[in-house]
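Feature request, filed as a ticket because there's no other form

It would be nice if the structure record came with a short human-readable summary line next to the tokens. Right now we just get the raw output. Example of a typical job, pasted below so the devs can see what we mean:
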Amino acid sequence: LFEGVRVDVSGEKSADEPYRIIRFDIRMEIAGNFNAAERLALAHRAEDICTVSNTLKGDAEFVLSITS
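Raw output as currently delivered:
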């Protein structure tokens, strides 16, 4: 039975320009009656459908508009 999930993300910033995040450390806690293999499968499935991680791994276009 799935009881809940908690995700904590931290990152490492580059030391050189252009400044950017070069590493994400993701810690996922899955509450419920699951064995290690089931927890791993759930974590991978969550990563597959995550809009944020899919965007970061992709090639999103940035559009800048300036108004007065």
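Something like this underneath would help us a lot:
The beta strands are 2-13, 21-32.
The chain has a mean pLDDT of 95.
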